[in-house]
Amino acid sequence: MNKKNIILGLILVVLIALAYFYQGPLKNKEEKNNFLADVAMEEVNKMEITRNGSSTVLIKEGEAKWKVEGEGDFYIKEDVAGDLEEKMASLTRATFELISTDPEKKSRFRSNEEKGSRVKLYDNGDQVADFIVGSLDSSTLNSTYVSQAGIDETYSAQNVELTGLMLRDDWRSKVIFDTAKNRIAQIRFQYPDREFTVEKTSTSSSYSDPDLNIEDTESEEQQGPEWQGTIPRNFSVSDDQMNQIADIMSDLEAVRIPEQEFEGTGLSEHLIIVEASGADFSNTLMVGEKDGKQGDRELYYAKKGSSDNIYLITGEQRDTLNQTIQSLQ
Q1: What value does the mean pLDDT of the chain take?
Q2: Who has the most CB within 10 Å: 79, 108, 170, 173?
Q3: Are 120 and 247 in the same domain?
Q4: Are residues 145 and 180 in the same domain?
Q5: Is residue 161 domain-shared with residue 191, that is, in the same domain?
Q6: What is the pLDDT of residues 149-172, one digit of tens each?
Q7: pTM value?
Q8: Has residue 21 been placed in a domain?
Q9: How many domains does the chain have?
Q10: Could you tell me the residue range of the domain that residue 244 belongs to?
Q11: Does residue 54 lie in a domain region?
Q12: Which of 16-20, 105-109, 137-141 comes out lowest in average pLDDT?
């Protein structure tokens, strides 16, 4: 065998060894960095998230609903729940790149308990994971620093951005109503000294076929008013005012969620009750007294008829719902 063939043979051996090293031991080492790889997120039904010394416990109900454990009957928003599940599942599959073995640097990466968000995952009462979500990896901006309590190492979870989710102080959804406005057919108003009902008029109907991209709406001259008072008698109303009320009763989000104590809210006094209903739904809102803790800003206590959760809405929203037959005309 000549010298040239010997050299080529040696090069081939080196290449094979390198391929084995990168695809074998090194690859296995990288995979072992992900200390969450054995977690099956589809089996996780409880999460405990601790940040700044305050803990939130989320309990899974059904396929995609996560309830916030504690006072009231609050859930996290549907889009937040989907985002949380997706990113947690991605975390268990992600490549963990070792960033530091210096415990002093964990503060900089916010991957310690003091500055990070500690997350515990449970499967039917059994803890299956305990880790800390730190800050964004500044080198990629779409990866997240992660670590564990009691270890020195900090890793970058590649292509998983969890920091934004974990920075929230309150996981409870502030959404009160989320209904298509055009489904409302009737709005009933109830106050201590009066009660009346306004309905959509049949002449305001329109036809649309999304598949054919056709919309046929009666002309303005033929259409007439969109809303009409019907109880306790027939009376005319302003479509503009009724549409503002319908906006609130179909799409309403609280300014914030106060302490869940009924005393002092006025919600049991039936000051304002407005019910918007359609063929298969009913949105009822009760509005109570002004929250005296907000200084110059007017916020009012409110709750849905279907829940005892207490919210705060704006004074402008409260005033829009506080109507008489005369004020609607």
Answers
A1: 87
A2: 173
A3: no
A4: no
A5: no
A6: 999 999 999 999 999 999 888 999
A7: 0.79
A8: no
A9: 2
A10: 175-328
A11: yes
A12: 16-20
Residue 51, in any domain of the structure:
yes
Residues 131, 166: Cα–Cα separation, whole Å: 12
Closest C-alpha among 300, 256, 236 to residue 274? 300
Tell whether the model's pLDDT for residue 106 goes beyond 70: yes
Which of 233, 220, 250 lies closest to 329, judged by CA? 233
For residue range 30-64, what is the model confidence (pLDDT) as tens digits?
557 899 999 999 999 999 999 999 999 999 998 87
Domain co-membership, 83 together with 125: yes
DSSP collapsed to 3 states, the chain? CCHHHHHHHHHHHHHHHHHHHHHCHHHHHHHHHCCCCCCCHHHCCEEEEEECCEEEEEEEECCCEEEECCCCCCECCHHHHHHHHHHHHHHHHCCEEEEECCHHHHHHHCCCCCCCEEEEEEECCEEEEEEEEEEECCCCCCCEEEECCCCCCEEEECCCCCHHHHCCCCCCCCEEEECCHHHCCEEEEEECCEEEEEEECHHHCEEEECCCCEEEECCHHHHCCCEEEEECCCEECCHHHHHHHHHHHHEEECCECCCCCCCCCCHHHCCEEEEEECCCCEEEEEEEEECCCCCCCCEEEEEECCCCCCEEEEHHHHHHHCCCHHHHC
Mean pLDDT for 178-207 is 86
Using the 3D structure, point to which of 125, 142, 166 is the last residue of a domain.
166
